[in-house]
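Weekly structure sync, notes
Attendees: PL (lead), two postdocs, one rotation student
Agenda item 3: pending single-chain targets
PL asked that the sequence for the first pending target be pasted directly into the notes so everyone works from the same version. It is reproduced below exactly as submitted, 386 residues in total.
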Amino acid sequence: MNDFDYLGEGEVYLDAACQSLRPRPVIDALNQYYTKHNSCGERVKYKWGKVTDEKVEATREKVLKFLKLSARKYTVSFTLNTTYGINLILSQIKANKFKKVMTSEIEHNSPFLATMAFSERTGLPREVMKRNDDGSIEVSAYDFSDAVVVINCASNFDGRKLLNIKEITKAVHKAGGIIIIDAAQAMAHSANILRGVEVDAVCFSAHKLYAPSLGVIVWHDDLMKLMIDGFIGGGMVDDVKESSYLLSAEGKEHRYTRFESGLQAWGEIVALGVALDWLEKLPKSAWNNLENNTATLYNFLSSSKKLHLVNKEANPTMSFYVEGLDSHLLGEALSREGIMARTGYFCAHYYLDHVLGLPPLIRFSLGLHNRSNDIEKVKTILNKII
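Predicted structure, written out during the meeting:
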């Protein structure tokens, strides 16, 4: 794809689950911010600032459109990353409104540790739910009464999805709880699972969505009723007196400021809007290419007797280990051949190490930038090594 023309012929990037490569239009948009309208959004009246404000507001609208959520019900706020967003919400939840916090066993450390800290801070019990091989949760097996539920809708080591997200969301709300979704691994290639599902908050990282490093919280406006003012500062208030203040978020028009203290990453926000446009305009052939590359690589990895996949089915994100080979050393060997892949437990230590008892793994995570000859090179090099 020409939008990734900076990727050298011999370079194979297989770490999109960490951060995707950025297409040329996104890189150009970020550069344009710095060279054409570098300014502090929402604070200035000069021309550059007005351009920034228009583009930032457009990005908020594009995020809601991408997720098929109503602007009458939902607000988009920008943060640092998914981890920051989840912690930002949990650190300000009124504990007396809930009876427990729940997460699942296949979580990234972001929600897994954040729910631990929330439990320790509030004294509320914490429950870790089992996930099926397909990523779903047996809703009937759990009591969601007055629970804060924080779970992913796509795993970062094998891509399994929360297939019954609508069912679990309905069950949580019916029981008086709230549900916060870690969508970091879903937004780029599996956003359909989320679209139109009215959870209480969706947290994701733009840098896994072909955009610059940025975090996003998409939250239902009713969530603010359950929050304390625990993280506040510049850009969030309409008035300040000696011992009191008036939050801008009290009005719908500036509700997004509830999670936006201080100066924001305006250029990155603008470039996220361009990334969403880029994704929406991609030809079907680009998605077919990703699907074909995924299937080819999965079939190859599945065919080796010495190679053990964590995946139960094909997914752009695949994790495995090879008998008799240290995964970290294997990662270095691949690197010497120009193949870039992640090794270790991918911030999912609890499940991969302590539940499954696996050794450190290799993760191949594909993206829209990958070419068919990338996959052929991986197959050739792995065959030689194994």
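Discussion points:
- DSSP finds ten helices and 15 strands in the chain.
- The first strand starts at residue 12 and ends at 13.
Action: rotation student to compare against the earlier draft before next sync.
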